Amino acid sequence: MTGLLAELVGHLGEGAIVKPSLRCDYGTNIRIGARTFINYDCVLLDCNTIKIGAEVRIAPGVHIYTATHPLDAATRRSGLESALPVTIGDGAWLGGRSVICPGVTIGENTVVGAGSVVTRDLPAGVLAVGNPCRIVRDL
């Protein structure tokens, strides 16, 4: 599996583990850091770059989206699409079934609670939970 995964993604760091099934658009826009663990049934929509740092923990069912669409209905119906990069810092932990929206950066060692929907950047070293995701405290 590691050989096929290394062919699929843009970068697979040493010792990284990705459990099946991983679903993505292209694969080549995904960068996975060393010793990162991605658990079962994750979706990485990589229309733009998804950078996952070293020693990140991603729980089952996490979705990371880069694709976005216009809010204006007429423009959306025209088929216009865009994508914004997502960055997950070293040592972060994304709880099960959390959703990371386009353009979001999550800082190093930050923990995102299960089921959270992250719509805005999170700084390093915080615990953040909820929908929408909010900072609860420093770690």
UniProtKB/TrEMBL annotation:
KW Transferase (keyword) present: yes
Molecular function per GO: O-acyltransferase activity
Name of protein: Nodulation protein L
Any single Pfam family the record assigns to this protein: Hexapep
UniProt function note: Acetyltransferase implicated in the O-acetylation of Nod factors.
One Gene Ontology cellular component annotation held by this UniProt entry: cytosol
CDD domains, per database record: LbH_MAT_GAT
Organism: Sphingomonas rubra
PANTHER family assigned: ACETYLTRANSFERASE C18B11.09C-RELATED, SIALIC ACID SYNTHASE-RELATED
InterPro entries associated with the record: Hexapep (IPR001451), Hexapep_transf_CS (IPR018357), Hexapeptide_acetyltransf (IPR051159), Trimer_LpxA-like_sf (IPR011004)
Keywords on record: Acyltransferase, Nodulation, Repeat, Transferase
Gene3D superfamilies to which the protein is assigned, alphabetical: Hexapeptide repeat proteins (2.160.10.10)
